[in-house]
């Protein structure tokens, strides 16, 4: 039972990342009809927003410390972060320690801007082009973005630690009545799951209960009719592209302590996220979220030693096997809409 609970927790952790990326992909496809293969790169850019923000907070300059001397008795020069001088040492250390969650404030405007520039500068020229053209141009953009990151940050992963308060593991089993130390689970992975749940709920609430969201949902269903009502639906769809980019970005920010950011992490998640979107149903936001968590849990159980010993490599292909089964039985996916990508 304890192993089952651990695998469910692992699945929710993986599923959170899949669901957040797939949610952004579906927002873009549902509003603009664009198959965006650069969305994984936006997840990667978000992770590097955390890296950049941490480095900005850690910027320092050398000062002479009279209380410390070298072997010749001369005062030593030490590096002092600027945040120590601006806010004091205690507050400065706290800012650096909490740089990952604080970098969300940095990532949101950056990713909104990146999304709007992408949509206005490139994507809008491919609205009426075949999906194959959209895939090629956005995949090419993803390669360009990851090579830019590789040029400036190198090919090696960059460790971005979680705040001290969330390092280590929680004795999760005690909460469920197990003996102490039976089920230990990393704090930050639990934080990531709850964070993903809040973001997903926030996006659905925004679309469901705000006037802006209602107009966007109406535009997704019948763009021409909304336009005839005098509403500039294009501007709203541009904002939705930026919102989808921001969702992918902050998903990457919070994932940075789990997997050290590297230039190819976007590609690692992109293909799996598209499988999630297809399984959930193209254009279906609830389908994308449900499929993300479902496939994350299945992948986690398929990675158990007892399963891999009996079926070696099953953990590498389980998501694709499920996709084949779902599409054979439900060609539109679990919650797909009629007419989406069926022309």
TrEMBL record:
Biological-process GO terms, alphabetical: amino acid transport
Q: What is this protein called?
A: Branched-chain amino acid ABC transporter permease
Q: Which domain of life is it from?
A: Bacteria
Query: Where does it live in the cell?
Result: Cell membrane
* CC annotations in GO: plasma membrane
The UniProt record lists the keyword Acetylation: no
Q: Name one GO molecular function term.
A: ATP binding
Instruction: Give the transmembrane region(s).
Output: 20-53, 102-123, 190-216, 237-258, 270-298, 310-328
CDD domains recorded for this chain? TM_PBP1_LivH_like
Q: How does it sit in the membrane?
A: Multi-pass membrane protein
> What species was this sequence derived from?
Histidinibacterium lentulum
| Family under the similarity heading | Belongs to the binding-protein-dependent transport system permease family. LivHM subfamily.
Question: Keywords on this record?
Answer: Amino-acid transport, Cell membrane, Membrane, Transmembrane, Transmembrane helix, Transport
């Amino acid at each position: 039972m304890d192993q089952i609970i651990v695998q469910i927790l692992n699945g929710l952790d993986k599923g959170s990342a899949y669901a957040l990326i797939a949610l952004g992909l579906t927002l873009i496809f549902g509003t603009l009809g664009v198959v965006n293969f650069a969305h994984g790169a936006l997840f990667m850019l978000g992770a590097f927003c955390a890296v950049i923000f941490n480095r900005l907070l850690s910027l320092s300059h050398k000062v002479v410390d009279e209380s410390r001397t070298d072997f010749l008795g001369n005062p030593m020069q030490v590096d002092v972060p600027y945040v120590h001088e601006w806010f004091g040492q205690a507050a400065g250390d706290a800012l650096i320690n909490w740089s990952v969650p604080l970098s969300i404030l940095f990532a949101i405007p950056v990713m909104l801007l990146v999304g709007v520039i992408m949509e206005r500068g490139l994507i809008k020229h491919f609205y009426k082009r075949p999906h194959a053209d959209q895939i090629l141009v956005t995949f090419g953009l993803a390669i360009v973005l990851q090579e830019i990151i590789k040029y400036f940050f190198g090919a090696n992963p960059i460790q971005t630690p979680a705040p001290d308060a969330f390092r280590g593991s929680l004795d999760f089993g005690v909460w469920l009545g197990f003996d102490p130390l039976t089920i230990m689970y990393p704090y930050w992975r639990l934080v990531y799951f709850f964070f993903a749940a809040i973001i997903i709920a926030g996006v659905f609430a925004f679309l469901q209960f705000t006037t802006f969201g209602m107009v966007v949902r109406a535009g997704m269903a019948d763009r021409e009719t909304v336009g005839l009502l005098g509403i500039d639906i294009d501007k709203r769809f541009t904002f939705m592209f930026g919102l989808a980019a921001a969702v992918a970005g902050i998903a990457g920010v919070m994932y940075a302590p789990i997997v050290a950011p590297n230039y190819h992490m976007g590609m690692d998640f992109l293909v799996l996220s598209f499988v999630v979107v297809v399984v959930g149903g193209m254009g279906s936001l609830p389908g994308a979220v449900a499929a993300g968590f479902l496939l994350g849990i299945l992948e986690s159980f398929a990675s158990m030693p007892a399963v891999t010993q009996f079926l070696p490599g099953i953990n590498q292909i389980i998501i694709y096997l499920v996709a084949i089964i779902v599409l054979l039985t439900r060609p539109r996916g679990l919650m797909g809409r009629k007419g989406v990508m069926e022309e």
